[in-house]
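REQUEST
  id: r-88c1
  op: predict_structure
  target: Serine/threonine-protein phosphatase
  payload:
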Amino acid sequence: MTVEIDTAEVMDLDECLEKLYNGTLLSERVLEWLAFKVKELIVDDANIVHIQSPVTMVGDIHGQFYDLLEIFKIGGYPPNTNYLFLGDYVDRGYHSIETISLLIVLKLKYPSRITLIRGNHESRQITTNYGFYTECVTKYGSDSKVWSIFTDLFDFLVLSAIVDNTLFCVHGGLSPNVQTIDSISVIDRFKEIPHDGPMADLMWSDPDIELLNFRISSRGAGYQFGINVVNKFLRINGFEKIYRAHQLCNDGFQVFWKGKVNTVWSAPNYCYRCGNKASILEVFDDSKNPESIRFNVFDASPDSEKEFLRIEGNNLSSGVGGVDRFDGLDGFGGSSDFEDNFEHRMNKKAPYVEYFM
Ligand SMILES: [Mn+2]
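RESPONSE
  id: r-88c1
  status: 200
  body:
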Protein backbone atom coordinates (compact mmCIF):
# COMPACT_ATOMS: atom_id res chain seq x y z
CA MET A 1 0.00 0.00 0.00
CA THR A 2 1.43 3.39 -0.92
CA VAL A 3 0.95 6.72 0.75
CA GLU A 4 -1.22 9.03 -1.21
CA ILE A 5 0.28 12.48 -1.51
CA ASP A 6 -2.30 15.19 -1.13
CA THR A 7 -1.61 18.46 -2.82
CA ALA A 8 -4.99 19.93 -1.95
CA GLU A 9 -6.44 20.27 1.51
CA VAL A 10 -8.27 17.00 1.88
CA MET A 11 -10.14 17.42 5.08
CA ASP A 12 -13.57 16.32 4.15
CA LEU A 13 -14.61 13.50 6.50
CA ASP A 14 -16.77 11.74 3.92
CA GLU A 15 -13.88 11.69 1.50
CA CYS A 16 -11.58 10.33 4.23
CA LEU A 17 -14.12 7.63 5.05
CA GLU A 18 -14.43 6.59 1.43
CA LYS A 19 -10.67 6.27 1.09
CA LEU A 20 -10.27 4.35 4.32
CA TYR A 21 -13.12 1.93 3.64
CA ASN A 22 -11.23 1.17 0.42
CA GLY A 23 -8.02 0.57 2.34
CA THR A 24 -6.29 3.74 1.08
CA LEU A 25 -3.99 5.55 3.47
CA LEU A 26 -4.55 9.22 4.23
CA SER A 27 -1.74 11.73 3.92
CA GLU A 28 0.33 12.69 6.94
CA ARG A 29 -1.05 16.22 6.80
CA VAL A 30 -4.63 14.95 6.90
CA LEU A 31 -3.80 12.57 9.77
CA GLU A 32 -2.28 15.46 11.70
CA TRP A 33 -5.46 17.48 11.22
CA LEU A 34 -7.71 14.53 12.15
CA ALA A 35 -5.71 13.80 15.31
CA PHE A 36 -5.91 17.46 16.30
CA LYS A 37 -9.69 17.45 15.84
CA VAL A 38 -10.15 14.23 17.83
CA LYS A 39 -8.05 15.56 20.69
CA GLU A 40 -10.16 18.70 20.69
CA LEU A 41 -13.29 16.54 20.75
CA ILE A 42 -12.31 14.22 23.63
CA VAL A 43 -10.08 16.41 25.79
CA ASP A 44 -13.04 17.35 27.98
CA ASP A 45 -14.38 13.79 28.27
CA ALA A 46 -14.17 12.36 31.77
CA ASN A 47 -11.87 9.36 32.28
CA ILE A 48 -15.03 7.27 32.55
CA VAL A 49 -17.68 7.94 29.91
CA HIS A 50 -21.31 7.01 30.44
CA ILE A 51 -23.16 5.53 27.51
CA GLN A 52 -26.60 4.07 26.97
CA SER A 53 -27.59 0.90 25.17
CA PRO A 54 -28.05 -0.17 22.46
CA VAL A 55 -24.32 -0.47 21.93
CA THR A 56 -21.96 -3.03 20.46
CA MET A 57 -18.65 -3.66 22.22
CA VAL A 58 -15.52 -4.56 20.27
CA GLY A 59 -12.40 -6.07 21.84
CA ASP A 60 -8.82 -6.16 20.53
CA ILE A 61 -8.42 -5.51 16.78
CA HIS A 62 -4.61 -5.25 16.55
CA GLY A 63 -4.35 -3.89 13.04
CA GLN A 64 -6.50 -6.61 11.47
CA PHE A 65 -8.21 -4.01 9.30
CA TYR A 66 -10.13 -6.42 7.07
CA ASP A 67 -11.56 -8.07 10.15
CA LEU A 68 -12.68 -4.65 11.40
CA LEU A 69 -14.54 -4.21 8.13
CA GLU A 70 -16.04 -7.66 8.75
CA ILE A 71 -17.23 -6.44 12.15
CA PHE A 72 -19.13 -3.61 10.48
CA LYS A 73 -20.65 -6.07 8.01
CA ILE A 74 -21.82 -8.28 10.86
CA GLY A 75 -22.68 -5.68 13.48
CA GLY A 76 -23.84 -2.83 11.26
CA TYR A 77 -22.03 0.23 9.95
CA PRO A 78 -21.81 3.41 11.98
CA PRO A 79 -23.91 5.39 12.63
CA ASN A 80 -26.64 2.73 12.45
CA THR A 81 -24.91 0.82 15.23
CA ASN A 82 -23.31 2.48 18.27
CA TYR A 83 -19.85 1.12 19.03
CA LEU A 84 -17.76 0.95 22.17
CA PHE A 85 -14.21 -0.11 21.29
CA LEU A 86 -12.24 -1.55 24.20
CA GLY A 87 -8.74 -0.71 22.96
CA ASP A 88 -5.72 -2.36 21.32
CA TYR A 89 -6.31 -0.98 17.85
CA VAL A 90 -2.68 -1.17 16.80
CA ASP A 91 0.33 -3.56 16.74
CA ARG A 92 0.58 -7.19 15.61
CA GLY A 93 -1.49 -7.02 12.40
CA TYR A 94 -0.46 -5.48 9.08
CA HIS A 95 -2.86 -2.55 9.07
CA SER A 96 -2.68 -0.66 12.33
CA ILE A 97 -2.62 2.69 10.52
CA GLU A 98 -5.69 1.93 8.42
CA THR A 99 -7.47 0.65 11.54
CA ILE A 100 -6.83 3.62 13.82
CA SER A 101 -7.31 6.09 10.95
CA LEU A 102 -10.75 4.69 10.19
CA LEU A 103 -11.74 4.67 13.85
CA ILE A 104 -10.78 8.30 14.44
CA VAL A 105 -12.57 9.48 11.30
CA LEU A 106 -15.69 7.61 12.46
CA LYS A 107 -15.31 9.22 15.89
CA LEU A 108 -15.19 12.67 14.30
CA LYS A 109 -18.06 11.99 11.95
CA TYR A 110 -20.32 10.37 14.59
CA PRO A 111 -19.02 11.58 17.98
CA SER A 112 -21.91 10.31 20.08
CA ARG A 113 -22.02 6.90 18.39
CA ILE A 114 -18.37 5.87 18.69
CA THR A 115 -16.43 5.52 21.94
CA LEU A 116 -12.73 4.63 21.92
CA ILE A 117 -11.18 3.36 25.16
CA ARG A 118 -7.41 3.16 25.54
CA GLY A 119 -5.74 -0.25 25.52
CA ASN A 120 -2.26 -1.12 26.75
CA HIS A 121 -1.00 -1.04 23.15
CA GLU A 122 -1.99 2.60 22.76
CA SER A 123 1.41 3.48 24.16
CA ARG A 124 4.76 4.73 22.87
CA GLN A 125 6.74 1.97 24.56
CA ILE A 126 4.54 -0.92 23.47
CA THR A 127 4.08 0.26 19.85
CA THR A 128 7.84 0.53 19.55
CA ASN A 129 8.14 -3.18 20.28
CA TYR A 130 5.07 -4.72 18.67
CA GLY A 131 4.81 -3.39 15.14
CA PHE A 132 3.02 -0.04 14.92
CA TYR A 133 6.19 2.04 14.90
CA THR A 134 7.69 -0.11 12.16
CA GLU A 135 4.48 0.10 10.13
CA CYS A 136 4.51 3.91 10.37
CA VAL A 137 8.12 4.08 9.17
CA THR A 138 7.50 1.53 6.40
CA LYS A 139 4.39 3.23 5.06
CA TYR A 140 5.21 6.92 5.62
CA GLY A 141 9.01 7.02 5.74
CA SER A 142 11.51 7.39 8.55
CA ASP A 143 11.23 11.19 8.62
CA SER A 144 7.45 11.16 9.00
CA LYS A 145 5.66 12.23 12.17
CA VAL A 146 2.82 9.71 11.81
CA TRP A 147 3.81 7.56 14.77
CA SER A 148 4.11 10.64 17.01
CA ILE A 149 0.81 12.00 15.72
CA PHE A 150 -0.99 8.83 16.79
CA THR A 151 0.85 8.14 20.03
CA ASP A 152 0.25 11.77 21.13
CA LEU A 153 -3.43 11.23 20.36
CA PHE A 154 -3.48 7.99 22.42
CA ASP A 155 -2.73 10.06 25.55
CA PHE A 156 -6.19 11.62 25.18
CA LEU A 157 -8.22 8.39 24.97
CA VAL A 158 -10.60 7.69 27.84
CA LEU A 159 -9.86 4.92 30.35
CA SER A 160 -13.22 3.22 30.76
CA ALA A 161 -16.95 3.35 30.07
CA ILE A 162 -20.12 2.51 31.95
CA VAL A 163 -23.13 1.26 30.00
CA ASP A 164 -26.59 1.93 31.45
CA ASN A 165 -25.01 2.52 34.89
CA THR A 166 -24.66 -1.27 35.06
CA LEU A 167 -21.80 -2.57 32.93
CA PHE A 168 -18.24 -1.50 33.69
CA CYS A 169 -16.07 -1.61 30.56
CA VAL A 170 -12.29 -1.38 30.46
CA HIS A 171 -9.47 -2.83 28.38
CA GLY A 172 -7.75 -4.98 31.02
CA GLY A 173 -9.34 -5.12 34.43
CA LEU A 174 -9.27 -4.14 38.07
CA SER A 175 -6.58 -2.55 40.21
CA PRO A 176 -5.82 -2.72 43.93
CA ASN A 177 -5.72 1.08 43.68
CA VAL A 178 -9.25 1.33 42.26
CA GLN A 179 -11.88 0.48 44.86
CA THR A 180 -14.45 2.96 43.57
CA ILE A 181 -14.83 4.59 40.19
CA ASP A 182 -14.02 7.92 41.85
CA SER A 183 -10.42 6.80 41.96
CA ILE A 184 -10.51 6.46 38.15
CA SER A 185 -12.02 9.91 37.74
CA VAL A 186 -9.10 11.59 39.50
CA ILE A 187 -6.36 10.02 37.35
CA ASP A 188 -4.45 12.44 35.11
CA ARG A 189 -4.76 10.35 31.96
CA PHE A 190 -3.03 12.71 29.51
CA LYS A 191 0.29 10.92 29.50
CA GLU A 192 2.13 7.80 28.41
CA ILE A 193 0.77 4.70 30.18
CA PRO A 194 2.83 4.39 33.39
CA HIS A 195 4.64 1.19 34.40
CA ASP A 196 2.40 0.75 37.42
CA GLY A 197 -0.42 2.35 39.36
CA PRO A 198 -4.15 2.46 38.65
CA MET A 199 -3.94 3.66 35.04
CA ALA A 200 -1.54 0.85 34.09
CA ASP A 201 -3.61 -1.74 35.95
CA LEU A 202 -6.86 -0.81 34.19
CA MET A 203 -5.14 -1.59 30.89
CA TRP A 204 -2.97 -4.55 31.85
CA SER A 205 -4.84 -6.67 34.42
CA ASP A 206 -6.52 -10.05 33.81
CA PRO A 207 -9.11 -12.10 35.71
CA ASP A 208 -7.98 -15.47 37.09
CA ILE A 209 -10.60 -18.01 38.19
CA GLU A 210 -8.13 -19.62 40.60
CA LEU A 211 -7.74 -16.44 42.60
CA LEU A 212 -9.66 -14.70 45.37
CA ASN A 213 -7.69 -11.49 45.53
CA PHE A 214 -4.88 -9.78 43.61
CA ARG A 215 -1.61 -11.25 42.41
CA ILE A 216 1.18 -9.53 40.45
CA SER A 217 0.79 -10.35 36.75
CA SER A 218 3.37 -12.37 34.86
CA ARG A 219 2.95 -9.87 32.01
CA GLY A 220 5.23 -7.49 33.87
CA ALA A 221 2.47 -4.91 34.41
CA GLY A 222 -0.97 -4.98 36.04
CA TYR A 223 -2.44 -7.69 38.26
CA GLN A 224 -4.39 -10.90 38.06
CA PHE A 225 -7.58 -10.53 40.07
CA GLY A 226 -9.98 -12.99 41.67
CA ILE A 227 -13.63 -13.33 42.63
CA ASN A 228 -13.53 -11.51 45.97
CA VAL A 229 -12.06 -8.45 44.31
CA VAL A 230 -14.71 -8.62 41.58
CA ASN A 231 -17.61 -9.00 44.03
CA LYS A 232 -16.41 -6.11 46.12
CA PHE A 233 -15.90 -3.82 43.12
CA LEU A 234 -19.34 -4.61 41.70
CA ARG A 235 -21.05 -4.18 45.07
CA ILE A 236 -19.38 -0.90 46.07
CA ASN A 237 -20.03 0.69 42.69
CA GLY A 238 -23.47 -0.76 42.03
CA PHE A 239 -22.51 -2.54 38.81
CA GLU A 240 -23.67 -5.94 37.57
CA LYS A 241 -20.88 -6.99 35.24
CA ILE A 242 -17.45 -6.18 33.93
CA TYR A 243 -16.67 -6.35 30.20
CA ARG A 244 -13.06 -6.26 29.09
CA ALA A 245 -10.80 -7.40 26.24
CA HIS A 246 -7.02 -7.94 26.37
CA GLN A 247 -6.85 -11.78 26.27
CA LEU A 248 -7.10 -14.06 23.28
CA CYS A 249 -10.07 -16.44 23.53
CA ASN A 250 -10.24 -19.47 21.28
CA ASP A 251 -14.05 -19.15 21.07
CA GLY A 252 -13.98 -15.37 20.63
CA PHE A 253 -15.19 -14.65 24.14
CA GLN A 254 -14.82 -15.94 27.68
CA VAL A 255 -17.23 -15.82 30.60
CA PHE A 256 -15.82 -15.79 34.16
CA TRP A 257 -17.74 -16.33 37.38
CA LYS A 258 -21.16 -16.78 35.76
CA GLY A 259 -20.78 -13.62 33.71
CA LYS A 260 -19.57 -11.25 36.39
CA VAL A 261 -16.48 -10.74 34.23
CA ASN A 262 -16.46 -11.29 30.47
CA THR A 263 -13.78 -11.06 27.80
CA VAL A 264 -14.61 -9.81 24.31
CA TRP A 265 -11.94 -10.71 21.75
CA SER A 266 -12.39 -9.28 18.25
CA ALA A 267 -9.29 -10.36 16.30
CA PRO A 268 -10.21 -13.64 14.53
CA ASN A 269 -7.33 -15.92 13.56
CA TYR A 270 -5.11 -13.66 15.64
CA CYS A 271 -1.87 -12.69 13.93
CA TYR A 272 -3.16 -14.64 10.90
CA ARG A 273 -2.17 -17.89 12.56
CA CYS A 274 -3.98 -18.69 15.83
CA GLY A 275 -7.11 -20.17 14.28
CA ASN A 276 -9.34 -18.60 16.97
CA LYS A 277 -12.81 -17.20 16.56
CA ALA A 278 -13.68 -13.62 17.47
CA SER A 279 -16.75 -11.87 18.80
CA ILE A 280 -18.49 -8.59 19.31
CA LEU A 281 -20.84 -8.09 22.24
CA GLU A 282 -24.24 -6.72 21.30
CA VAL A 283 -26.21 -4.98 24.06
CA PHE A 284 -29.62 -4.39 22.57
CA ASP A 285 -31.70 -2.18 24.80
CA ASP A 286 -32.09 -3.03 28.44
CA SER A 287 -28.73 -4.27 29.70
CA LYS A 288 -30.39 -5.51 32.93
CA ASN A 289 -32.25 -8.12 30.91
CA PRO A 290 -29.80 -11.01 30.25
CA GLU A 291 -31.53 -11.85 26.99
CA SER A 292 -30.69 -8.46 25.53
CA ILE A 293 -26.93 -9.12 25.65
CA ARG A 294 -25.25 -11.56 23.28
CA PHE A 295 -21.84 -12.42 21.89
CA ASN A 296 -21.94 -12.42 18.11
CA VAL A 297 -19.17 -14.82 17.08
CA PHE A 298 -17.40 -14.57 13.73
CA ASP A 299 -14.45 -15.93 11.76
CA ALA A 300 -11.68 -14.14 9.94
CA SER A 301 -12.57 -12.26 6.78
CA PRO A 302 -11.38 -14.02 3.59
CA ASP A 303 -9.67 -10.70 2.78
CA SER A 304 -7.58 -11.03 5.92
CA GLU A 305 -6.36 -14.45 4.77
CA LYS A 306 -5.62 -13.09 1.29
CA GLU A 307 -3.66 -10.24 2.81
CA PHE A 308 -1.65 -12.66 4.91
CA LEU A 309 -0.78 -14.84 1.93
CA ARG A 310 0.04 -11.80 -0.22
CA ILE A 311 2.42 -10.36 2.36
CA GLU A 312 3.84 -13.53 3.88
CA GLY A 313 3.49 -15.94 0.99
CA ASN A 314 7.21 -16.49 0.61
CA ASN A 315 8.29 -15.45 4.03
CA LEU A 316 6.76 -17.55 6.76
CA SER A 317 9.34 -16.51 9.31
CA SER A 318 7.63 -13.20 9.97
CA GLY A 319 8.02 -11.66 13.38
CA VAL A 320 4.29 -11.06 13.70
CA GLY A 321 2.72 -12.50 16.82
CA GLY A 322 3.68 -13.59 20.30
CA VAL A 323 2.93 -13.14 23.93
CA ASP A 324 2.71 -9.53 25.00
CA ARG A 325 4.86 -8.53 27.87
CA PHE A 326 5.51 -5.10 29.27
CA ASP A 327 9.24 -5.53 28.72
CA GLY A 328 8.66 -6.48 25.08
CA LEU A 329 10.20 -9.94 25.37
CA ASP A 330 8.20 -11.99 22.94
CA GLY A 331 7.14 -15.32 24.39
CA PHE A 332 5.88 -16.94 21.23
CA GLY A 333 9.25 -18.20 20.06
CA GLY A 334 10.88 -17.86 16.69
CA SER A 335 10.07 -18.85 13.17
CA SER A 336 9.76 -22.58 13.77
CA ASP A 337 7.02 -21.92 16.27
CA PHE A 338 5.35 -19.78 13.68
CA GLU A 339 5.49 -22.49 11.03
CA ASP A 340 4.11 -25.04 13.46
CA ASN A 341 1.15 -22.82 14.11
CA PHE A 342 0.74 -22.03 10.44
CA GLU A 343 0.54 -25.75 9.73
CA HIS A 344 -2.07 -26.16 12.45
CA ARG A 345 -4.10 -23.43 10.91
CA MET A 346 -3.93 -24.90 7.45
CA ASN A 347 -5.03 -28.25 8.89
CA LYS A 348 -7.97 -26.50 10.57
CA LYS A 349 -6.71 -27.75 13.90
CA ALA A 350 -6.74 -24.54 15.83
CA PRO A 351 -4.06 -24.43 18.49
CA TYR A 352 -5.58 -23.63 21.86
CA VAL A 353 -3.83 -20.67 23.36
CA GLU A 354 -5.04 -19.94 26.80
CA TYR A 355 -3.20 -16.94 27.97
CA PHE A 356 -1.98 -14.08 25.95
CA MET A 357 -3.47 -11.08 24.35
MN1 LIG B 1 -4.31 -5.66 25.53
